[in-house]
Amino acid sequence: MTGKIRVVLADDQEAVRAGLALILAGAPDITVVGQAADGEDAVTACRELRPAVAVLDVRMPRLDGISATRRIVAEGLADVLVLTTFDLDEYVFGALRAGAAGFLLKDTDAEGLVAAVRTVAGGEGIVAPGVTRRLIRAFAATAPSPSATARAAVDSLTPRERDVLACLGLGLSNQQLAERLAMAESTAKTHVSRILAKLELRSRVQAAILAQDLGLPVP
Fold it and tell me: Closest Cα partner for 36 from 67, 66, 57, 19?
């Protein structure tokens, strides 16, 4: 199992959980190390098993996926990939605020699920295709205005980092960022990591929302 991406799955429907586990088990670089039927057990499993990625349903008994995400992220137990039936509901927004690294629709195919787990494990955020820009715009429209501290932090970025942040506001992946700004993908990834650290943000989606709020010009 050494070197594999360790995953904990949480969904209150046993059949759904089994299906997800079967899909992920078929990937040579992924291993499902734990499963849970509710948010409380999901947090406990992450504390005990320390997976790279926790795949959480939003609607679960005892502790919902949003609250579970908040605990898992706050304790640094794993990166969270949230599964949702709806692409723009209040649950997704709540999970975003809680620090989820990704959002995936339950109708995503097997290849998409595996790719999403790999992406999140690699330190990138992911949102279901076709949802990214609408999600960012919708959340930005309802989110509080950036604080003076956030604005000051953005002012501290280098010009190149500001360009990268502006591109994040479009929902671009690292590869798309690299192509747009004529840089290596590894360089784009490094810039994103530095931006998140400087702005004290938990995910690239949160950075995208900040970029939207500030109206940063896109290069």
Answer: 57
| Of the options 3.40.50.9100, 3.40.50.410, 3.90.226.10, 3.40.50.2300, the CATH number for the domain spanning 5-129 | 3.40.50.2300
For residue 137, the model assigns a pLDDT of: 62
CB neighbour list of residue 88: distance below 8 Å, 6 or more residues apart: 131, 134, 135, 138
The burial class, CB within 10 Å (0-12 / 13-18 / 19+), for 137 is: middle
**Contact yes or no for 164/181 (Cβ under 8 A):** yes
For 78-102, how does the pLDDT look when each residue is reduced to its tens digit (9 = 90+)? Answer: 999 998 776 555 666 677 778 888 8
53: which strand partners?
7, 79
SS3 76: coil
Q: Kindly state the percentage of the chain with pLDDT values over 70.
A: 84
pLDDT at position 139 over 80: no
pLDDT digit string, tens, across residues 181-210: 999 988 998 998 899 888 887 677 778 778
* Residue burial 51-61, b: 16+ Cβ < 10 Å; e: rest: bbbbbbbbebe
Q: Can you list the positions of beta strands (E) in the chain?
A: 5-10, 30-36, 53-57, 79-84, 102-105, 126-127
Q: Is 181 exposed, middle or buried (0-12, 13-18, 19+ CB in 10 A)?
A: middle
* Residue at 33: amino acid letter: V
